Amino acid sequence: MPYSSGTTGLPKGVELTHSNIVSNITQLSPEEINYLQETTKEHQDVIPVILPIFHIYGLVITTILTLLRGCKNVYIPKFEPKQFIDILVNYKPNVLFVAPPLVLFMTNQDAVKPEYLSPVRDILSGAAPLGAADEQRFLAKAKKNITIGQGYGMTEASPVIALTNKKKRCPPGSTGIPVPNTEFKIVDISNPNGPSLGPNQTGELLVRGPQIMRGYHNRPEETENTITDGWLRTGDIAFYDDDKNLTITDRLKELIKVKGFQVPPAELEEIIRKHPDVLDVGVIGIPHKLFGEVPRAFVTPKPGAQIKEQKLQEFVKDKVASYKELKGGVQIMDRIPKNASGKILRRELKDLYKKIEDKS
């Protein structure tokens, strides 16, 4: 019984059966979505286990799946930059199972030399969307042809729902195709019980398959609201293309509603990370008397850099529609609060903003 991430509310106990976990491991067998090489007398994949094992990604993917394949796992009790870099140098890992913050770390840190990444064959990023621009910046740093795949999943789905197809180029930023025996559909956000939407139409993602949880522990009402006729309401905003590649754009509960328009925080975060002085960023919606909500950015500068609020607002303004501008302002922080899997804890950012407002 792992617990949900708790990025927008309190975590919930997720009841996963033996059948759920075994089904999901089996669903990862096809060659086109298998990022691990079988162990032989001549070769053994080396995997740094960075994500905590109490997290579903760390438990099922970087522990159960890698042990099943006979990989050599290098466990890290707690992520520390120097220790991670030492592992790159000394153990020469072949596959990195990561969350987007670690991709950004490897891209932005001068201490991570391109030659340290030379043994890396594949990277699989999950737990949160990795933007196409962030993907390209990492490849430019690595200076080699590393396959970067993305996976999409949820604790409620044991966790994998979709993976990038290694044999067929997926659009940058896509989380790939659904794993075998998994159905998905996109429905209108305002009418989840209505008809399914077609390709390239954005809405809420619903999923059905043998990996879907039994329910939330001691929460029958929330279980009923989340699962209908076997369909799991993911709470994620997504679309799929003509080849059935899924792209997750944001969380339904995290959308910022400006004058009736819906603004995905992840879209603004990807733009802000392109600023040369920005190390990390988290965006939330804050109340506004006229517009309902407006975006506010919490920003961590790169070491030695200084960021001026107006300059960053102008940087974003040149790249977005007017309703997506940072009219809620910019706040400089030492670090962006995240959970163990690397997801931004937006509820903590909202609490921080509320405390600031209460004092003013």
UniProtKB/TrEMBL annotation:
Q: Where is the AMP-binding enzyme C-terminal domain?
A: 267-343
Which Pfam families does the protein's record reference?
Answer: AMP-binding, AMP-binding_C
All copies of domain AMP-dependent synthetase/ligase, residue ranges: 1-217
Q: Does the keyword Transmembrane helix apply?
A: yes
Q: Where are the transmembrane segments?
A: 46-68
Q: What is its main location?
A: other
**GO CC annotation:** peroxisome
Keyword set for this entry? Membrane, Peroxisome, Transmembrane, Transmembrane helix
* Protein family according to the UniProt entry: Belongs to the ATP-dependent AMP-binding enzyme family.
The protein, known as: Uncharacterized protein
User: Which organism is this entry from?
Assistant: Cryptolaemus montrouzieri
